[in-house]
From TrEMBL:
This is Bax inhibitor 1. GO terms for molecular function: enzyme binding. Its main location: membrane. Belongs to the BI1 family. GO terms for cellular component: mitochondrial membrane. The keyword Transport does not apply. It comes from the Eukaryota. InterPro entries: Bax_inhibitor_1-related. The chain crosses the membrane at residues 15-35, 42-61, 67-84. The keyword Nucleotide-binding does not apply. It is found in: Membrane. It is a multi-pass membrane protein. Keywords: Membrane, Transmembrane, Transmembrane helix.
Length: 136
């Protein structure tokens, strides 16, 4: 994350705060959706998310960079839904390992933050390039 943060701050420091606030809002909304959903509605996403992750891994060689970023963000959101419901179900069954549960959620948050930050930085780069072309 360090080199990525340095690169994004070099582009525009406000991107980091915008990405963090956006991630917090999206993460909070999808966490609440997972908590309010019927008991095992999103647990069945596990196989689909794993398959989609594998497909995304191989798609890196054939698909546009923007498609990879948006698909990765969508997968991150799916994992927030899945992991939140898995943690709730594990807790109901007696697994109270709150440290590992917090780590799982933190990893989901960081992945989502990374994708949003890259998308915002990429958008800012394209806008700067267009402005340069117009001036030249």
């Amino acid at each position: 994350m360090g080199p990525l943060l340095e690169r994004v701050i070099a582009i525009d420091p406000s991107i980091v705060l915008t990405a963090f606030l956006s991630t917090t809002i999206v993460f909070g909304c999808f966490t609440m959706a997972a908590l309010k959903a019927p008991t095992t509605k999103f647990i069945h996403l596990g196989g689909t998310l794993a398959s989609a992750s594998l497909i995304l891994l191989f798609a890196v060689f054939f698909v546009n960079y923007q498609v990879i970023l948006w698909a990765g963000l969508a997968l991150s959101v799916g994992f927030v839904l899945y992991d939140t419901q898995m943690i709730v179900e594990k807790s109901r069954m007696g697994d109270n390992d709150y440290v590992w549960h917090a780590v799982e959620i933190f990893i989901d948050f960081v992945n989502m933050f990374r994708y949003i930050m890259i998308l915002l930085a990429d958008k800012e780069n394209r806008r700067e390039n267009e402005n340069r072309r117009k001036r030249d």
